[in-house]
């Protein structure tokens, strides 16, 4: 595995790989790797000749009161884990390498962002599509891999690729969970021991909502209320939201039909956790 920190070096190597007719899989991350990220890398390894992972804590997607400075970082550990997962090229630029001067073009996402986390994070997905667009141009991947734990991000990036005709495939990979069901997240390190015991009930609450729908309940509000009741009773967390939406369009539904997402965000003392279940009903 080689580590690259400069844009020109990456584009030079990518040019050589493309000229040789090799396929490229891209795994964009913000580092502090966990099993979820490594699952993306391993899937990319299975499906491509060359695997590029980026580690870049993107300042554009953090709001003024969010945790950019305190976002966990451990590059030496990440480098070792990436190599073990089969990554060929680790691209780890500094912010001034990705954004050497103010951009004359500003990207603005106008759909799929007014629900879920996007509703309370104005500008967040503008920052996401900006950095992802740059990474797509630099790495020229045939396939790009994203975890479905952040399903809204996957929906937005799918829309980006469709809208701008990027010649690549977006691969959404199922959420990687701990044995107790808790979704793997870089922010889990902020949970207290007690919160760690309670947090697996987030997934249990989502499963309770899905079970109600799969038993024939078509009223979205009743499924949402079932999920909320379980969260309130078992998680010990403050509920930020519980929503049931079409997927990937992320539009509200009253009657459950077709592919939908049941998603939640909850707040603990030092961590905000998200999770979701995507399922289909006739």
TrEMBL record:
Positions of the catalytic residues: 37
Gene3D superfamilies documented for this protein: HUPs, Pantoate-beta-alanine ligase, C-terminal domain
Annotated positions binding ATP: 30-37, 147-150, 176, 184-187
Keywords: ATP-binding, Cytoplasm, Ligase, Nucleotide-binding, Pantothenate biosynthesis
Pathway: Cofactor biosynthesis; (R)-pantothenate biosynthesis; (R)-pantothenate from (R)-pantoate and beta-alanine: step 1/1
Binding site for (R)-pantoate: 61, 153
Enzyme class per UniProt: ligase
Catalytic activity of the protein: (R)-pantoate + beta-alanine + ATP = (R)-pantothenate + AMP + diphosphate + H(+)
Binding, beta-alanine: 61
Further facts: The reaction proceeds by a bi uni uni bi ping pong mechanism.
NCBIfam families: cyt_tran_rel, panC
Subunit details: Homodimer.
Record family assignment: Belongs to the pantothenate synthetase family.
Protein name: Pantothenate synthetase
Source lineage: Bacteria, Bacillati, Bacillota, Bacilli, Bacillales
Gene name of this polypeptide: panC
